[in-house]
Structures are given as C-alpha cells and as structure tokens.
Amino acid sequence: MVERKTECRVELLLGRQVRADDGRIVGRIQELRAEREHDYYVVTEFHLGPSALIEALAVRHLGLTWPGRVHGYRVRWNQLDLSDQEHPRLTCPVEELERIGAPRRRDRKKHAA
Amino acid sequence: MDEPLPLARDVLDKQVIDPDGCKVGKVDGIVLALREHRPPRVIAMEISQAVAWRRVHHRLGDFAEWLRVTFEPGHQDRPARVLFDHFMRGGIDVHIDISWKHTRALVWEDWLQQRVIAKIPGGRRGGKKD
C-alpha cells in the first residue's frame, strides 16, 4: 500500500483553535512535543490552552490559577485530527484528555504500583 | 529515553548554527509529514522570508514567495530547507551537523559577495586581512 503523505507546518498550526466533536472550543495549539523514534523525530503530543502558552514562552508563573477552570490539555497525536489543518478537531471526548499540571497517566500507574 | 523536544519553545524562531559556529539563519518554519495511523514525522526546518511572512498573512507569504522565486539567484522552487536529520540540539540556538555551504540559506549573501563586495577595491577576501 502506498503511504499517503501530507505536509503540515508547525508555525501555521500554532494558535489554531481545536474543537471537540460537539463543536466546543477546547483550546488553541500552543506547543508540540517531539520525541526521537529510531533516527528521526515524531510529534507525540500537542499542548493546548494558556498553560501550554506559558510553557512555550518558557516563563515561570507563580502557580496561581483560576479555581475550577482547566488551563491546558495534553493531546496525544492520535487524539487530534489534522486532515483539515485550519480546523483541527479532537477524535475523542474532552474528558479523555490529560490536563496540563496533572500527573501523567504513566506516572500515576507507577505510583499506584 | 531522550527528553521530549518542545518544537515551539526550543526550535521555532531560533538561530541556526552550523558546526563551524556560522550563523545560518533563523528557523522560520518546521515541516511535518502526516502519516496514516502513525505520529507525524518532523522532516525539515525552513529558513525563508516567505515562510516568515506567511505567518503574518497568507497573501504576504504568497507575495514574498513570488519575489523569492522570481529574483532569488538560482531560481529554486522551494525555500531553503535543512532536513531535521541534521538537527543536533535546540534551546537558545539550534545546532545542526552540516555546514552552511550545503544549505541554500545564505544564497543572497553569496550573491552579494561575488557580485558586489568582490568588485569593491580590497573586497575580494570579504574584508579579511592576511
């Protein structure tokens, strides 16, 4: 099978609003995390929301947050549909996303063990 | 395992430096290849005014691209790209493992050096003294 390849640009993805299946805005893409796989890098996570912007700007804040509000999500590569790059959409419910600042799922499993 | 690399924080808009310490340009764009059922692969960094202008507005990007294609020495149809395979480390600067001579990032500087600077008396050695 021939692999379908499409080019996509990081600089144009940054700042794009991501919507959930129901059309609700989840946040804007502020950061992309890449990891080394064999001898090349692949994007494994997209970070959304104001916390992700603070991360991307590499500034420290005092940890003050508005209570009861989610300030950022960590979206795995397979949880985001980039087929329409101007209107990225989630492929899963918002509840399945990891919150930025919350312990990572793999870390939580480690602590539980 | 390696730490994840934040592309917006540590790569985009950072100064590219070759193994000789020469400044090659800034990373104006990063190209990803979307693949079916596999994570997007980071394929290249682009160093181009047109790519930078496109971030402001797509029409400005198109115009800058037209200028580049029309007037750039060599008339290449693509902006200068450094494959991500040559990426060594990011952060304050982006270090690559190939020389600027193997990229087309400094094509205008080369053109100026050969066509203008070299014709100024004493300018043949790029202002360097023996």
What fraction, in percent, of the residue positions of chain B are helical? 25-40%
Q: Give a short account of the largest sheet of chain A.
A: 5 strands, antiparallel
Distance between the termini of chain A: 42 Å
By secondary-structure content and strand pairing, the structural class of chain B works out as alpha+beta
Q: Which stretches of chain B are poorly predicted, pLDDT < 50 over at least 5 residues?
A: none
* Subunit organisation of the chains: heterodimer
Distance between the termini of chain B: 49 Å
Number of strands of chain A: 8
CATH class of chain A: Mainly Beta
Sum up the overall morphology of chain A in one term: globular
How would you state the average pLDDT of chain A, rounded?
81
Principal-axes geometry of chain B comes out as globular
How many E strands of chain B? 8
Largest interface: A-B, 33 and 30 residues
CATH topology of chain A: SH3 type barrels
Write down the domain tally of chain A.
1
Radius of gyration of chain A: 15 Å
Strand content of chain B: 25-35%
Structure write-up:
The complex is a heterodimer of chains A (113) and B (130). Chain A is of the alpha+beta class. Chain A has helices at residues 10-13, 50-56, 105-112; strands at residues 6-9, 17-19, 25-37, 40-48, 73-76, 80-81, 89-90, 98-99. In chain A, the strands form two sheets. Chain A has a five-stranded antiparallel beta sheet. Chain A has a two-stranded antiparallel ribbon with strand order 6-7. In chain A, strand 3 and strand 4 (40-48) form a beta hairpin. The N and C termini of chain A lie far apart (42 Å). Chain B has 130 residues and is of the alpha+beta class. Chain B has one domain. Chain B has helices spanning 7-10, 49-56, 58-71, 107-115; strands at residues 5-6, 15-17, 23-26, 29-35, 38-47, 80-83, 87-89, 93-96. In chain B, the strands form two sheets. A four-stranded mixed beta sheet of chain B has the order 3-2-8-7, with no helix packed on it. A three-stranded antiparallel beta sheet of chain B has the order 4-5-6. In chain B, a hairpin with a 5-residue loop joins strand 2 (15-17) and strand 3. In chain B, helix 2 packs antiparallel against helix 3 (58-71). The longest helix of chain B is centred in the middle third of the chain and has 14 residues, at 58-71. The A-B interface holds A 3-12, 14, 30-37, 39-45, 55-58, 77-78, 82 and B 1-2, 4-9, 12, 28-36, 38-43, 51, 54-55, 84-85, 87.
